[in-house]
Amino acid sequence: MGAIKIEILNPKALEMIELMQDLKLIKVSEEPISNLKKYLETMRLNSENAPTLDEITEITEMVRSERYAKK
Q1: Is 25 helix (H, G, I), strand (E, B) or coil?
Q2: Residue 6 lies in a domain
Q3: Does any domain span residue 5?
Q4: How many Å apart are CA 54 and CA 12, to the nearest integer?
Q5: pLDDT for the residue numbered 19
Q6: pLDDT of residue 18
Q7: Whose C-alpha in 27, 29, 30, 56 is 20 to 30 A from the C-alpha of 4?
Q8: What is the band of 71 on the pLDDT scale with cuts at 50, 70, 90?
Q9: Can you tell me the mean pLDDT for 43-68?
């Protein structure tokens, strides 16, 4: 079966999901936090000006585009 990510906006929806889980229609599991996110959260706690995940992604994409443009 397939997996989807759902953002719950209404508490009643959570009740419905729990009911479907009790009826064994669906399986709910928590999304694991990646090691990178854990590391970044730890580093941000100890730094006043740590880059955000978006800033890191932007820099990474820039470096990758420069690297692959050379080939």
Answers
A1: coil
A2: no
A3: no
A4: 33
A5: 94
A6: 92
A7: 56
A8: low
A9: 85
| d(C-alpha 13, C-alpha 20), whole Å | 11
CA–centroid distance for 19 within its chain: 26
Query: Which structural domain range is residue 38 located in?
Result: 11-69
Residue entry with tokens 């932007």: 58
**What is the tally of structural domains in the chain?**
1
C-alpha distance across the termini of the chain, in Å: 40
Report CA Rg, the chain: 19
Torsion angle (degrees, nearest 10) of CA 67, 38, 50, 70: 0
Among the residues of 1-71, which ranges form H helices? 11-22, 35-45, 53-69
- Count of C-beta atoms within a 10 Å radius of residue 43: 11
How confident is the model over 5-55, as pLDDT tens digits?
A: 888 899 999 999 999 999 999 988 877 778 888 887 887 787 778 777 888
Residue 24: predicted pLDDT: 94
